[in-house]
Design brief:
By secondary structure, this protein is an alpha+beta fold. The chain is 49% helix and 12% strand. It has a 4-stranded antiparallel beta sheet. The chain has a 3-stranded antiparallel beta sheet with strand order 5-6-7. A hairpin with a 4-residue loop joins strand 6 and strand 7. The protein is globular, with a radius of gyration of 20 Å.
């Protein structure tokens, strides 16, 4: 079977027009991913300056090297996470400029990106239950001293049984950040990309879910709140007026502010 995938990869790696495209081989859905264009280092400078200015090392940029370096990075990261028993796609074939992944679905069950799955839940209770399960899975990865690359909800897949899998590992934060900063970065990506899935009246409950999980790692929780304290002033600029991204940022900062308030209440009550 491996020969089939290797031959398919050699034949299609350079012919494929999209950087990532799905195919079916012997009724098995697969994904062929090509080496992407190398990113200019200039695009990371503003975030680098911001990180140093605010003293927030977890916000330091993690460059996507693109090309064959990104392919090698993703293969290495998938193999490392596999060893931690984290559900990531199987690598079926690879070469310097491309590789083939088995579809991330478990037992043929369709998978959905987490942000979409949260948005289509019919009730607040269902949405919070799914959110809670996702936070526990992320924390379990951290307890194994693992971390993701881009822990955005679009890279977290969930099936109908609420089993989770993870994709997109072109970068390795561990090459640039401490393990604690990698974990904090994961949570910041996660919060930013899920906050918009909740209505305003649901945010308090979503924060309680986060607190229940984050209190297991006080140092990371403290760093998340520290980020929130240093960027709360952005709410005065009314970022929600800047469109959908501004609205997402507003909800994210609101959650960070609420997390910090809850942490301070918990500290006082101890």
């Amino acid at each position: 079977m491996s020969k089939i995938y290797n031959d398919f990869l050699k034949k299609n790696a350079l012919k494929q027009e999209k950087s990532v495209q799905s195919y079916k081989i012997n009724h098995q859905k697969i994904w062929l991913k090509q080496a992407s264009q190398r990113h200019s280092t200039w695009i990371y400078l503003p975030l680098q300056w911001c990180s140093k200015l605010l003293g927030l090392s977890m916000l330091a940029p993690v460059p996507n090297r693109g090309g064959e370096e990104a392919i090698a990075c993703e293969i290495s990261r998938i193999q490392a996470l596999k060893k931690l028993d984290i559900h990531v796609p199987d690598i079926l074939a690879y070469q310097n400029n491309a590789f083939i992944l088995k579809d991330a679905s478990l037992n043929g069950e369709p998978v959905t990106q987490l942000d979409h799955a949260l948005s289509i839940q019919e009730t607040t209770e269902q949405r919070l239950a799914l959110f809670s399960n996702a936070t526990k899975v992320l924390e379990n990865i951290h307890q194994e001293n693992g971390y993701l690359s881009e822990a955005f909800a679009r890279n977290i897949l969930v099936d109908t049984d609420q089993k989770f899998s993870f994709i997109d590992f072109e970068t390795d934060p561990g090459q640039y950040l401490s393990l604690k900063d990698c974990h904090t970065r994961d949570w910041l990506c996660f919060i930013f990309s899920t906050a918009h899935c909740f209505e305003k009246h649901e945010l308090n409950q979503a924060v309680k879910v986060l607190v229940n999980t984050l209190q297991l790692t006080p140092d990371v929780f403290n760093d998340i709140c520290r980020v929130g304290r240093k960027i709360t002033w952005l709410l005065k600029l009314k970022p929600e007026k800047l469109g959908s991204d501004g609205k997402r940022l507003t909800k994210c900062i609101s959650i960070l502010k609420m997390l910090n308030n809850q942490r301070e209440l918990n500290y006082v009550s101890q």
